[in-house]
Amino acid sequence: MEISKQKRVMILIKRYGLTIVLILLILVGTFLPLPYYIYRPGTADPLNEVVAVSDRDQQSDTGDFHLVTVRGGQATPIQLLLSQFSDYQEVYDLEDVFPEGYDRDDYMREQLLVMENSQQAATLVAYELAGVDYTVNYEGVYVVNVLDGMPAADTLVMGDKILEVNGEKITDADHLISLVDGYDEGDTLTFTVKREAETFETAIKLVPFPDQPETIGIGIQLVTNREVSLSREVEFFSGDIGGPSAGLVLTLELYDQLTVGDLTHGKKIAGTGEVDYEGNVGRIGGVDKKVVAADEEGCEIFFAPNEGGRSDSNYQTAKQTKEAIGSDMVIVPVDNVSDALDYLNSF
Hints:
The chain is α+β, with helices and mostly antiparallel strands. Helices cover about 35% and strands about 30% of the residues. Helix 4 packs parallel to helix 6 (about 245-260) and helix 7 crosses helix 8.
């Protein structure tokens, strides 16, 4: 008996309808962007693939220093669901991470500029500790961020180079800050600025910061422009990794490549912390997620900022996370790069 066309269609719908619905649900759950942003453990990547010093000591390759990251991204339904089962994934409203009008490209450029400054600080600290020659010329400061609602927002943009203030040549960020501190609220200063090929002057008024009314300024975040000449060249291949938190492990990797012997003693070592030009190690965000990422990579040692022994330091958080996940990693507190070197040289 021949089945009518209408019945054949109904049979096909019954046979494949559920499959089609499931496929649609999977596609929606996987790709539909939600108004949430999730921070989660990222990767722990060997730094000998990111940093290369000329005439490097090849023995350094027997062990690895690892750059540890935190991964962030806009949530999908499946990701949001899975985040509820992890203690190390944080969910934020998207508008809190990227407020309306916030330029994500500018944010990424800012983070890359901060990473460049971190690389330079790590390089100079490592060369100094290793006794390798270098020279530094100070060439003013770069603007890496401009605060909305502050006077600088009307005339300065990210990437501008400040050469002089009221005719006085600026050497570094501390010099500019101390110079501004010598003036009063309401004073107007003349800034000599270089933007790409153009150099110009602009008058900017000093006002209180909205969240720090006792402090006056024009509303910019700065990094010092140092022209560095190295006796042994160094190259970085960090790609689109931004921010300052790799400073400590970058310094250790550079020192290892500059000196004879294997500083890692064949171990997989991770760590985090911003490094300044004196080698001091500062607090960073997301240390719990970085401990998880380092443990998943099989790292044996993790250096964390001690912050002078504060009870809520990165070190204390890292130690608590290690215990919570049942890791065998050794968590080592550091206030300065020399603390990490002392620990590694004690083996």
